[in-house]
Automatic annotation (TrEMBL):
UniProt-listed InterPro entries: A/G_cyclase, Adenylyl/Guanylyl_Cyclase_3/4, Nucleotide_cyclase, TPR-like_helical_dom_sf
BP-aspect Gene Ontology terms: cAMP biosynthetic process; intracellular signal transduction
GO molecular function: adenylate cyclase activity
Highest taxon above the source species: Bacteria
Protein name, UniProt field: Adenylate cyclase, class 3
Natural source organism: Shimia aestuarii
Guanylate cyclase domain mapped to chain residues: 7-115
Pfam families given in the database record: Guanylate_cyc (PF00211)
Coiled coil spans: none
Amino acid sequence: MRSRITTLMFVDMVGYSRMMSADQDAAIEAVRELKNKQLEPVLSDFGGEILKRMGDGWIIAFSSISAALDSAIQVQTNLYDHRKLKLRIGCHLGEIVEDEDDFYGAGVNITQRIQTEAPPGGVMVSEDLFRQLSNDRAKLLSDAGTFNLKNISQPVRLYQWRPAPGLKRKLDDVPSIAVQAFEFAPIDSETAAVAGDLRDQLIVRVSRRKGVLIFDASDKNVEKATYDLRGRLRIAGGRGRFTVTMTSRADARPVWSQTYEAPTEDIFAFCDEVLELAEGDLRLQTNAFDGDRLVDIPLEDLSVSELRARAANEYYKVTMESWSYGLALMERAISLNPHDAVSLCMRVEAQIMLHGARYEDLPAQLREIYSDDLNTAVIQSPQSDYVFWTRAYFRLVVDDDVPGARADLKRSAEINPAYLENYELRGQILLRESDFEGADTAFSRLIERGAQNPLQPYRLFMRGVARFCGGDFEGAAHDAAAASDLRPNEAGHLKLRAMALNEIQMDKQAEVCLTAARKLSSEPMMTTKLPVLPPEYRWISDKLRPGA
């Protein structure tokens, strides 16, 4: 056996299985065209050595890093306008071990994982390979951010190229944020230490998010950063005020700012509280940035991670249409990578939400499929708070498995104590267990910390339902009214308010609400999806369901 360090390339044909199902002869002819005309001749011209053919995939080795990248770009450029053929190409610098029968090595597996993250029609390369490129070639690639690759313990940074004829900017550039030094007052060593801790923790927490790059401006050249993030801390009279502001470097325009206040008797508790709020708000902002950068890229050219980003943007619009479109995006992402954990979970979440908004159960055939998918996701991404949150949500809403949901919720909270959606799930579990006061508290914490979240009307509705079940009819009426003010086109909020008003004998006001509700659309709405209720309260669904 012999080993060598080489530049590896993994090539995969997009949509091959679908093409085989639709027209087997056309699929075989497409592979032949790649082999004889579009792919292998180009690779050969650049010194590529075909290590293995796998039907719709190729593994190639190059002795030259630049030749590997140049050949990949040449192949994808030639295929840009091809009606049928589209490839994804991944490249990595790694070791392979060969004998007379086959070749092996972690480098091969890593290259294949990288290829699954490449955009259709594009090229994705590892940071190890990128660092070896000349400046001119490196400028051809965009920083795609960090990725969690299967069986790789640490996140890896990848760089991508995609053809973009006629475009004046790189549409696939990931937005980057340079975190500047935080200001503080009073000017003393203790306050300086608190400000420094807030800054360091915010960098660490936000850097876990995908779709945005976070740089410590004191440690890295950040001249090309998209945004500056500044913080200001002031402590006085037993309270602290922490302000975070994001500014666009292109035009010095503030794009987002938020202030958080809390008592400072326990300075560690103060830091935990304001960081939880700031991280949650920045999560919304980075999702928005990631969605905005993709709007001009054709759907068929988006990578798996980009499809997830666009779907997240759609989910935040909180309409049946946007969630249905997000579901379709996840179906496409899964067709590109059937084992992508986050895509599997986002598909499950969308189905639960859409069926719940219709007051329908998830069909039995989907339950089994999605249960398996969620178990796969947990295996693929055992350090993802969202993955465990989704399986907990499924166990509660679909399986009515409260112990299982609690176990997954606990794991999600251990991974990320600041994950705000955990409060929602905790509230739903407590509601299912008839702990209405506990559910009220959990939903209240979520509502207080998620004022900017587009899902706020849905959260108000859930708390209103919990309060109604617990006999706090005035609170329920208040929450329903607040939700209705935010989403005045949704009849469910008015129906809940009418139910609560009837309980406190405000019958005329209740009738006004019902009359208004009857004038609105009877179509399902996302923010009036009913949470899981105890059996003795499930009659409420008959009162609130669309068209009732």
